[in-house]
Design goal:
The protein is α+β, with helices and mostly antiparallel strands. The protein is built from nine helices and four strands. Helix 2 (30-40) crosses helix 7. The radius of gyration is 18 Å and the shape is globular.
Length: 196
């Protein structure tokens, strides 16, 4: 059985997708980010929770603060990327459920009493949305460099608040010279898929 998605789009979104490590200096515009969000906001989440929050780091001062919180190998590429986004999970996502899940009026109350339950659900669903975001960056003809090597407590303190948990930092732009490491191996289907 073949996939419905055109092979060129399959290549763009998946087969040729790599973590970019260098970028050109071509800016990433607010219009491009808006187009990415307008596409990926339709990706499904549990109960349409939509807990992903995106903080764009554009000012030189904010960039310096962020670079200082990145792991050593991630600092130079974060300093040089045209745009950096902090992707976080909003642990108070349930406040939006009356708007996002209106056919179930009790949805907000399911999460209202337990911060721990909200944090687990927010982390899972925001991570799912973060994956959609990275694919959306590819769909915009850009490259993404997602990173988890950073001081999460420091990023939360400097850029977020106690209700938002940082998940990853993503460098975004057009790939630069020697942007890609060699392709790493992937698991075969028999290593991943089990039928019971």
């Amino acid at each position: 059985m073949s996939l419905v998605l055109d092979p060129t789009a399959q290549d763009l979104l998946f087969r040729e997708a790599r973590t970019a490590n260098t970028f050109t200096d071509e800016p990433v515009t607010d219009e491009q980010v808006q187009a990415i969000y307008d596409l990926v906001k339709y990706g499904p989440t549990s109960m349409n929770q939509s807990p992903l929050r995106i903080t764009l780091v554009r000012s030189a001062e904010a960039r310096e603060r962020l670079v200082a919180l990145m792991g050593g190998g991630n600092q130079p590429k974060t300093a040089a990327a045209p745009l950096v986004a902090i992707l976080s999970a909003d642990n108070e996502f349930h406040e939006e459920l009356p708007q996002l899940f209106p056919h179930f009026p009790g949805a907000k109350d399911i999460f209202g009493g337990s911060r721990e339950t909200r944090e687990r659900s927010a982390a899972l669903n925001a991570s799912l949305q973060a994956a959609y975001f990275i694919i959306g960056v590819r769909a915009a003809g850009l490259a993404a460099g997602p990173m988890s090597g950073f001081d999460a407590a420091g990023v939360q303190k400097e850029f977020l608040d106690d209700d938002h948990t940082p998940l990853m930092v993503v460098n975004i732009g057009r790939p630069g010279e020697d942007a890609w490491f060699p392709r790493s191996p992937r698991l075969e289907s028999e290593q991943v898929i089990t039928t019971v």
